[in-house]
Write a structure and sequence with these properties.
CATH topology of the largest domain: Metallo-beta-lactamase, Chain A
Number of strands: 22
CATH architecture of the largest domain: 4-Layer Sandwich
Radius of gyration: 22 Å
Structural class: alpha/beta
CATH class of the largest domain: Alpha Beta
Helix content: 25-40%
Bound molecules: zinc ion
Number of domains: 2
Distance between the termini: 11 Å
Shape: globular
CATH superfamily of the largest domain: Ribonuclease Z/Hydroxyacylglutathione hydrolase-like
Number of helices: 14
Strand order of the largest sheet: 6-5-4-3-2-1-22
């Protein structure tokens, strides 16, 4: 029998039965380690959870481990800190650098949305308050402690952390926690095995407990060549005098889209229409991408060409002027799931006109505007007003940053022995269950789907 000090508890506080709000608490050796600290996104019932008190006292958490910078993994940090968390946030250097862009930007969007709601009076709350502010987003960065892949970091006496490259976005990691003589592995979001821009996920070979994501647990990516698919969309849109609007954050999908567009243009396969990156963060993001050459596959020269191939738009006035331009262009603007940011005013302008195309290049969480549009809704609410969707809508999921079900299974096959228990999280219920069945039947492992709030004692 294990002694009291060997007791180990997992608590699933988010990304259980859904893809957002990633947070799993590990309690062991008298400590509390929170793995990921994400915001819930999508359906209103999920978003309301962001306003609820955190399920455990934030001051009682000793450290946070961040697998990557996306807001659904990092965006609750400013609130955790506001509510009393005083420990360190452990992340890779690239993750910290990206959070330096993302967290203040997210705060700025929350502030702007609250201001807008107050001006127009369409909030049910008077006055509407931001979830957190830009200043709180910036302050969160002070808590970060950075490390590289495959280095051992002591989080607390008797608790060690190692990050492994997960390939999903710059700096994205799987994480191994060594505690009480056991290894707990979190896959984090896994990337593609064959992306020309991002590295493939590194193998992890040992786990006593494993938590694996299942975003695409029930799907395989379209095997069509993404370059061909992108060329088709651009050519038919430009032929009818339209603009291709791509909701995407300045880092992540953007570099791979720019990489393909640059190749297509050089090969003369698409017309030389302007590529515009409408993002005040684009310069920072490009700098981060160039600085972290080891985290991706582009050599310095290609990286410089790809990152320099778009016209960068920084000011809000310039951004609004883009909507008055009648010539076709390829316009990349945040946010990727159209949950906020400048892409909203572009959507209001381009969505009602059938000449244009709305091109989605990443996972769209259910309930987000992006997912509603991809699902075929014919009108969408933007800043309190309904806007009709008459533009062509395309979703090229082969451009996704997520491993598909076969790629997740391949990554699991690297483990040299079955974990005592595997938990499937970070997926919609159908995706999570489909992956569970495949893990049980194809690998013969003990596996279950994590439930929101579930407590597991090992
Ligand atoms: Zn992610």
């Amino acid at each position: 029998m294990r002694s009291q000090t060997d007791a180990l508890r997992l608590r699933f506080l988010g990304a259980a039965g859904t893809v957002t709000g990633s947070r799993t608490l590990v309690e062991a050796a008298g400590r509390r380690i929170l793995v990921d600290c994400g915001l819930f996104q999508g359906w209103k019932t999920l978003r309301l959870r962001n306003w609820a008190p955190f399920p455990v006292e934030p001051a009682s958490i000793d450290a946070v481990v961040l697998t990557h910078a996306h807001i659904d993994h990092s965006g609750y940090l400013p609130l955790l800190i506001r509510n009393g968390f005083r420990g360190a946030v452990h992340a890779t250097t690239a993750t910290r650098d990206l959070c330096g862009v993302l967290l203040p930007d997210s705060g700025r969007i929350h502030e702007r949305d609250a201001d807008f709601a107050n001006q127009k009076g369409f909030s049910k709350h008077a006055p509407a308050l931001p979830l957190f502010t830009e200043a709180e987003g910036e302050r969160a960065l002070d808590a970060f402690r950075t490390t590289g892949f495959e280095r051992t970091v002591e989080l607390a006496p008797g608790i060690e952390l190692v990050f492994h490259c997960a390939g999903h976005i710059l700096g994205a990691a799987s994480a191994t926690l060594r505690v009480a003589g056991r290894k707990i592995v979190f896959s984090g979001d896994l990337g593609r095995s064959n992306c020309p821009v991002m590295r493939a996920p590194d193998p992890v070979r040992e786990a006593d407990l494993l938590v694996v994501e299942s975003t695409y647990g029930d799907r395989l990516h379209d095997p069509a060549d993404p370059e061909d698919a992108l060329a088709d969309v651009v050519n038919r849109t430009v032929a009818r005098g339209g603009t291709v609007l791509i909701p995407a954050f300045a880092v992540g999908r953007t570099q791979i889209i720019l990489y393909y567009l640059d190749r297509l243009r050089r090969a003369g396969r698409i017309p030389a229409v302007p590529v515009v990156m409408d993002s005040p963060m684009a310069i920072d993001a490009t700098g981060i991408f160039r600085r972290h050459g080891d985290d991706h596959r582009l050599d310095a020269a290609t990286c410089a060409t790809v990152c320099g191939s778009a016209r960068l738009v920084r000011t809000a006035e310039e951004s609004k002027r883009l909507d008055q331009q009648s010539e076709p262009m390829i316009l990349i603007s945040a946010s990727g799931m159209a949950t906020g940011g400048r892409v909203l005013h572009h959507l209001a302008h381009f969505a009602p006109d059938p000449r244009h195309t709305l091109l989605f290049a990443g996972y769209q969480a259910p309930g987000t505007r992006g997912e509603r549009i991809v699902r075929g809704e014919t009108s969408i609410k933007l800043h309190g007003a309904m806007v009709p969707i008459r533009a062509e809508v395309e979703s090229l999921d082969m451009l996704s940053a997520h491993a598909d079900a076969d790629e997740i299974l391949s990554w699991l096959r690297w483990f040299e022995r079955p974990p005592a228990m595997t938990f499937v999280n970070h997926g919609e219920p159908a995706a999570a269950d489909c992956l569970r069945v495949r893990i049980r039947d194809e690998l013969g492992w003990r596996v279950r789907v994590a439930d929101q709030g579930e407590i597991f004692d090992a």
